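Run log, item B.
One chain of 172 residues. Sequence copied directly from the ordering sheet:
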Amino acid sequence: MNSKQAFNIPYTIGFCLLDDMVLMLHRKFPPNQHLWNGVGGKIHKNESPDDAMIRELLEETTLDIKQAESMQYIGIVKWNVVGDESNSHKGMYAYIIRFSSRIEWSTKMTDEGLLEWKKLDWVIDKANHQVADNIPYFLPYMLETSVPLLYDFHYIDGVLDKLTVYSLDKQE
């Protein structure tokens, strides 16, 4: 069993990279309303995580995966929210999608929110409260490894308490 089959995860998230920039979505709606986040969404019934990420990329950004240099599955981000059981034990299959300077892009408003290229250093700054709170903790790991890992976040009453990173091989 591969690491994408070991979990029943309902969502995908992708981080599109272009040089030192990350394509971010300023979300209009919950979760993470009014915060910058990666692109992605719900996996449809009978859809693989890879296919869901490709579909969400096109739907949310109009970027076709054929324009990318690569799309790499890089792990799973899960969270457990103590005190809010409705939001506990959820997660996302995570991807890094690399583009070259050949793509043409301008900031655009979509149904989901504003899409804009942001400096990577800004996105992963732990003091930046404009980005979804867990991104500065897992994205740097993802950019430094080629091995998919499990990023397991623990929240208490909606506040990030700790992150534990596991090998996906040991989870199967």
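Observations after the first pass:
- The chain has one domain: 11-171.
- Residues 62 and 118 are 18 Å apart (CA to CA).
Flagged for discussion on Thursday.
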